[in-house]
Amino acid sequence: MFTQPLKFVFLLLTLLTIPSIVSCNADVTNSSATSNTQTSSENVVKSKTQTLRGQLIYEKIPPRKSKRAYRGDEFFLVTNSQSPRRLVLRVSEQVSHEQLKSFHNQQVEINAIYVEGTRPSTEVTSCPLDADGECMPQGDGYQVLSVRVVGK
Prior knowledge:
alpha+beta; 152 residues; 5-stranded mixed barrel
């Protein structure tokens, strides 16, 4: 009794989802596999180093699930420009977690490069979702290559 309508619905859904599955596979095929295998030092060479000034802020990651905990944001630079911004800072091979932590609440000048984040698959991990229903990126921000205290 219900098998004929169910078969029709299944066939219709299959026909509607095939184009989106094909486009997902095309995105995976066209993505650059070499960018995921590069070491951080290779990325440093290819990226433009920026010098930024501002107040370095350390905020311990909360012990509960939150977007900030998921992203791992704990170091920030509040810039001294006319329109202050709060930039996310990341540790690097040159500047450790403890070194950045020692500059908390100080006016600093940093040399850094911007690093793109990665998006885990929603099938593999639970994560906060963006407006497109994809996992939010993790690890994006300014990777600090050097830091020094400056006077006001």
